[in-house]
Amino acid sequence: MKEQIKTYFNRYVTFEDSEIDAIYSKLEEKTFRKKEFLLTENSICRYNFFIVKGVVRLFYLDAKGHEKITQFAIDNWWITHMESFIQQIPSTQYLQAIEDTTVLCLSKSNLETLYKTYPKLERMFRLITENMLIANLRKSDIYLQMKSKERYSFFVEKLPGFAQRVPQYMIASYLEITPEYLSELRRQRI
Amino acid sequence: MKEQIKTYFNRYVTFEDSEIDAIYSKLEEKTFRKKEFLLTENSICRYNFFIVKGVVRLFYLDAKGHEKITQFAIDNWWITHMESFIQQIPSTQYLQAIEDTTVLCLSKSNLETLYKTYPKLERMFRLITENMLIANLRKSDIYLQMKSKERYSFFVEKLPGFAQRVPQYMIASYLEITPEYLSELRRQRI
DNA sequence: AGTCTTTCTTAAGATATCTTAATTTTTAGG
DNA sequence: CCTAAAAATTAAGATATCTTAAGAAAGACT
Lengths: 190, 190
Fold this sequence. Notes:
The structure is a homodimer of 190-residue chains.
Chain A: H1 2-10, H2 17-24, E1 28-32, E2 37-39, E3 47-53, E4 55-61, E5 67-74, E6 78-79, H3 82-87, E7 94-97, E8 101-107, H4 108-117, H5 119-145, H6 148-158, H7 160-165, H8 168-174, H9 179-188
Antiparallel strand pairs in A: 1-8, 2-7, 3-6, 3-8, 4-5, 4-7
Helix pairs in contact in A: 1-2, 4-5
Chain B binds a DNA duplex (30 and 30 nucleotides) through helix 9.
């Protein structure tokens, strides 16, 4: 598992093995069964989660009590409820495992301490955050340009891993359409 | 103008005056007349722009040649086409002044150099990028939950400065609705 | 294998939003 | 001030998407 972290970290910034060791020692391994929650509404998100293996979704409940999925994450992604984690305020969303999932948990306080000792880590997260922002802006653009049908094709094409590992009604939620309508779109496409 | 920068920077990280001077010396002042472009499609965005005074919009042309606005920025905001600036690839969007605007331009290469000398600056931009990401995620959530009518009320309420300084058809574009439909919504609301 | 739960499909009617095109109002430049 | 250009409004018809409700299919657990 430390190897996986090392490989991942060195994609962004070159770290010494000793640095990796020090940072790694601040990560806490946890496993969650399918459907278990990593975070629930109203609690403060204390961790940024690095997914070693598994699938996790971030979602909230709308006024009618329907789940609205805003993010998915799989192996080698970080996931957290940003607003809650960064500002240490109660979360409006849930984090839940879709499959059995192993994560490494990086707490806010450990992260702040590590930033002071390892400016490289700050650089890594600056770069990761930039990438997340770009991905998010791009997602908004795509949703702005495309009708639902195209969004679905796009999703299936660009994120081939996901369509298999995630039930269709969750994809519908992420694509911001109803499962019924997605079903109809899929029928039309044949 | 240096005072404005100093005040702004110190909101995020405490800098020495000498540090502010050094960073400030790498910023290039420019002014743009209303409707002038800071960046056009297909060119590489070399700068992150700090708006000293004015209003700027970021937009692209959709398949039908209609302008789709993805961001506004006013005094004391940074704006750039993230994807183009960070990755130094051709931009898919335009940056244009809506009013006469004064900006301070920070080039990608100057920024990289400054990061090496001043880790504090890296921290500041890490924090700014986190805030931008949170704002963007929140925007997506809002658009997901709200119908057009609520989005308009929300925009008017939360960004009171903007509704005055930006023409209505641009607000419509930002809200992802047609100007005709926005007009109808406004009528209904009385 | 059998039952309970979860997921997916189908269809009819309702609604939000867009399209087009014409008209009115406001703003900017000589 | 006057006129041309830009922006906002109005209305009718078209379309995408949702809602509700029911039934079919697939998966999970004894």
